[in-house]
Amino acid sequence: MIDILEHINAVQREVSRTGETVTVLMRRSYQAEPAEVWDALTDPDRMRRWFMPVTGDLKVGGSFQLEGNAGGDILECDPPKSFKVTFGGPNSLLELRLLPGAGASTELELEHSMGEAPAPGGAGALWVGPGWDGGLLGLALYVSGELPADADPVQMADSPEVIDYNEQSVRAWIEAIRASGTTTEEDLLSAAKISLSQYAPDAEL
To answer: Where is the Activator of Hsp90 ATPase homologue 1/2-like C-terminal domain (predicted)?
Structure first.
């Protein structure tokens, strides 16, 4: 069983806006060395275990494609510290940074900036934040050894347990956007309804 609230509360979420660019910033600690977390994030054979299959020329100047999802270009890579890619388009930039934590832990920072946000102001965070929450959850279960060897991340994503997690994630992002003051309450609630319909279809505001 997934401790939903433990995993929701393990993530720090921030939303900011500069002009038309909206940025989500997430932080989470993992009980594994940075080299181990880096390998889980970048080895295609391991990524398919907790995230989704990836193909492409996985080096700076190359490109990648996530199966059934976004692709992009690899702009920067500094193993085992950070990488930066476009994600779904040239105005959508994703950067992951790994910092050594206490003991044998790793502090992960995920920053996703959207130059053309899909909703007014910070409300656009609801299009990407809950999805990245799901990814950080999968990574946590994987590096802690809680994922069965035959686990299928796609099937897990459709499980009632993960859908409950998604609902709590959307609600956490609503509060993060409110705290940021980057959009109106009307636009926030409109985006939240759409986000819930995608990530937790039976939930209501």
So the answer is: 32-119
What is the pairing mode between strands 12-18 and 54-56? unpaired
CA distances from 81 to 17, 42, 60 (A): 26, 12, 14
Is the whole model's pTM more than 0.90, yes or no?
Answer: yes
pLDDT tens for 143-202 read 999 988 888 888 888 899 999 999 999 999 999 999 999 999 999 999 999 999 999 999
Q: Which residues of 33-53 are buried (b: 16+ CB within 10 A; e: fewer)?
A: bbebbbbbbbeeeebebbbbe
38, pLDDT greater than 90: yes
Quick one: which of 126, 121, 128 has its CA closest to 92?
Answer: 128
Q: Determine contact, residues 66/74, Cβ cutoff 8 Å.
A: no
19: region left, alpha or beta (phi > 0 left; psi from -120 to 50 alpha): left
Q: What share of the chain is helix, strand, coil (3-state, %, to 5)?
A: 40, 25, 30
- DSSP conformation letters of 16-41: EEETTEEEEEEEEEESS-HHHHHHHH
Q: Establish whether the linkage from the previous residue to 80 is cis, with ω within 30° of 0.
A: yes
Helices (H) and strands (E) in the chain, counts: 7, 8
Res 147: pLDDT: 87
